[in-house]
Amino acid sequence: MKIQVALYAAVQAGLVFSQTTNGTETPSEVPYYGLSPPVYPSPASNGSSSTQWSAAYKRAKALVAQMTLEEKTNLTRGVTGSCIGTTGSVERLGIRSLCLSDAPDGIRGQEFVSSFPAGIHVAATFDPDLMYKYGVALGEEYHAKGINVALGPVAGPLGRIARGGRNWEGLSNDPYLAGIGMGAITTGIQERGVIATAKHWLLNEQEFRRTNTDAGEAMSSNADDRTLHELYAFPFMNALRAGAGAVLCGYNRANQSYACQNSKLLNGVLKTELGFEGFVVSDWAGQHSGVASANAGLDLVMPDGGYWGDNLTQAVTNGSVSADRLDDMATRILASFHLLDQEYSYPLPSIYTNAQKHFAVDAQSFDHAELIHQIGAAGTVLVKNVNNTLPFKKPRYLAVYGYDATVKASPWDNYLRFGGGYEVNFGWSTLNGTMITGGGSGSNTPSYVIDPFMAVSQRIAQDKGTLRWDFWSENPSPAFVNAEHCLVFINAYASESFDRTSLKDAFSDNLVNNVAANCSSTIVVIHNAGIRVVDEWIDNPNVTAVIFAGLPGQETGRSIVSVLYGEINPSGRLPFTVAKAESDYGTLLNSTVSSDYFPSINFTEGVFTDYRAFDREGIEPQFAFGYGLSYTTFEYADLTASLLGTAAGASAGNSIPDSSVAIVQGGHPDLWDTLAVVTCTVSNTGALDGAEVVQLYVSIPAEDTPVRQLRGFQRVGPLAPGEGRRAVFELTRRDLSVWDVVAQQWRLPRGEFGLFVGASSRDFRVNGTITI
Ligand code: BGC
């Protein structure tokens, strides 16, 4: 009987049992791939999450009550304008069009805007405060340009596969790190009055056949219910909790149903379980049906009406879509607009194509250049530094090699490569020059670039030194044998619309080895749009220092010079695992390739991606998740761990949140209660000032759970030599829970939780436990 009840609940939850199920397995043991159960009707929202949402809904509802059917459908219909997307307006009621634009790392295709570091670079800072400031700065620029809706931040792709083309747009494949970033960036953007859009919802993990083509339908990412919650929806929860006004549904299919017409994901997980009050916008041409997408919970289609427009009016007239559903769509769009108070003096869009003669509004007058420099340096990860090669001690003679040291490609290069198929150019791309961000719609258009060569030249000039360079040869000759150090700049490019075919390239690897053959202090700087393996030369004794410099944005040269010369002591950490060999990523290396008409990707690894997989398989990484060096050393001591009173309440009864408490945006409010506090001291035991990224990993006492998962981090410092400080981590109920597929809730397991505090996912300095 018990099993039958469990089975019934599991089937309701969308769990699919294989034919071989023998009735004794628990649902979490049974693989579930590829069915998206129907969840109807679409829940109409009413703003009960907060007083702000409630006030916004009051205003939105009052407007919708005055609108005709056509006016409502018009609001949900994206039109082509100067913005990447524009909503319909209702002039009679003073309802303006909303302007939606890319990118998550800066406004693309415009003048007098900044090129910020990409998401993955921001994650490498492991600094929530910088993540927040990044959001604020983006918000300031979007606001100045009159863009109502910023198309970011990104938590999907999360980074399931190492070679994913868009992993760099998001923060990290670790859902906790990505989640903290999603929350902080959303808060920052929205504090400046701009609607943030968490994207791409959900399971949008590869570019190969990401959408429908002549070959057939889009890939279906098939994930079991627990994985869906614990990995992929997890970081979106933080953005929702921070009040995100919009969510963008992806191109892919998820459990066999297109993301923009997937009632389980939109009506179910997003709007019911996570209480989302804002609007769902389709990815561009990501809508695949009219009535089905409306009923499944899509609220706004982009671009150009998709299957809606007059068809939606007709569908409501003939009852295929209810009038209430349409009211809810229009209300949600207007509620987000009002949540951000955009009706009061929000600037009109100032977005132009380059061919138009125009007056360009200045979004560059904020001092974002310095913030970009700081984030650029803070997200720079030093992984090898033999004999204290770095920081430089005023070298007088340096040699610079490699195509990545200088600007070559024009910001329009990508536009040309993509055949001009987009309204607005695709921004910065750098197959042949220094790389400051990746390619595709997540790219940005720098107003200028301080490239590494420029910045190094300036420093050498100050020191009255000599610089030699060769940017383009694979085997530079002559070797400048008197140089004290040789800097080799290489990159690893990735872009929307294709997945990577390798995590290294022969030209760059040869270049490093060729330089190192003649230079006993070769320093490699990699600008990497995701993972880059270094097996071809990492053990070369002449390679004395290696830096993962990420995607730092327009101040790239300033950031790297600050780190090389020690003005900023590196504290950046890898937001992914760097394997010894590409094959170590196993099935999570490549995108799934299929010529089926209905192709599928089965997420058979469940929650075991990246370091979770390396830990389970016992694979030694080259550089572990969370790894990064400093020019000083730190000592950890005195771990304390205490349970708060909330923990007893949370573990009472069946250890799931009280179902009588109303859901608010972000999910059950109790999930965000702090249950435990962990602290430890960190002291600078070296000779230089520096900040340390202290990480807390937790082992949750539940079956099929990763051995350790990141559940806290803090960038402590800068600390002066001898100075110590306490790092404090608050563990929320969600941080300690697992998704229970039968209860359809987060369950707090009882037992002993292991606490591991240290400098990476493989370097623990103080340990402890809590028992719940
Ligand atoms: C991308 C989105 C982007 C949109 C508008 C799509 O191709 O997937 O991330 O916001 O285009 O440019």
UniProtKB/TrEMBL annotation:
<dbReference type="Pfam" id="PF01915">
    <property type="entry name" value="Glyco_hydro_3_C"/>
</dbReference>
<keyword id="KW-0732">Signal</keyword>
<keyword id="KW-0378">Hydrolase</keyword>
<dbReference type="GO" id="GO:0030245">
    <property type="term" value="P:cellulose catabolic process"/>
</dbReference>
<dbReference type="InterPro" id="IPR002772">
    <property type="entry name" value="Glyco_hydro_3_C"/>
</dbReference>
<keyword id="KW-0624">Polysaccharide degradation</keyword>
<dbReference type="GO" id="GO:0008422">
    <property type="term" value="F:beta-glucosidase activity"/>
</dbReference>
<dbReference type="Pfam" id="PF00933">
    <property type="entry name" value="Glyco_hydro_3"/>
</dbReference>
<keyword id="KW-0964">Secreted</keyword>
<dbReference type="GO" id="GO:0005576">
    <property type="term" value="C:extracellular region"/>
</dbReference>
<dbReference type="InterPro" id="IPR036881">
    <property type="entry name" value="Glyco_hydro_3_C_sf"/>
</dbReference>
<comment type="similarity">
    <text>Belongs to the glycosyl hydrolase 3 family.</text>
</comment>
<dbReference type="InterPro" id="IPR026891">
    <property type="entry name" value="Fn3-like"/>
</dbReference>
<protein>
    <recommendedName>
        <fullName>beta-glucosidase</fullName>
        <ecNumber>3.2.1.21</ecNumber>
    </recommendedName>
</protein>
<keyword id="KW-0326">Glycosidase</keyword>
<dbReference type="Pfam" id="PF14310">
    <property type="entry name" value="Fn3-like"/>
</dbReference>
<keyword id="KW-0325">Glycoprotein</keyword>
<feature type="domain" description="Fibronectin type III-like">
    <location>
        <begin position="692"/>
        <end position="761"/>
    </location>
</feature>
<dbReference type="InterPro" id="IPR019800">
    <property type="entry name" value="Glyco_hydro_3_AS"/>
</dbReference>
<keyword id="KW-0136">Cellulose degradation</keyword>
<dbReference type="InterPro" id="IPR050288">
    <property type="entry name" value="Cellulose_deg_GH3"/>
</dbReference>
<keyword id="KW-0119">Carbohydrate metabolism</keyword>
<dbReference type="InterPro" id="IPR013783">
    <property type="entry name" value="Ig-like_fold"/>
</dbReference>
<dbReference type="InterPro" id="IPR017853">
    <property type="entry name" value="GH"/>
</dbReference>
<dbReference type="InterPro" id="IPR001764">
    <property type="entry name" value="Glyco_hydro_3_N"/>
</dbReference>
<dbReference type="InterPro" id="IPR036962">
    <property type="entry name" value="Glyco_hydro_3_N_sf"/>
</dbReference>
<comment type="pathway">
    <text>Glycan metabolism; cellulose degradation.</text>
</comment>
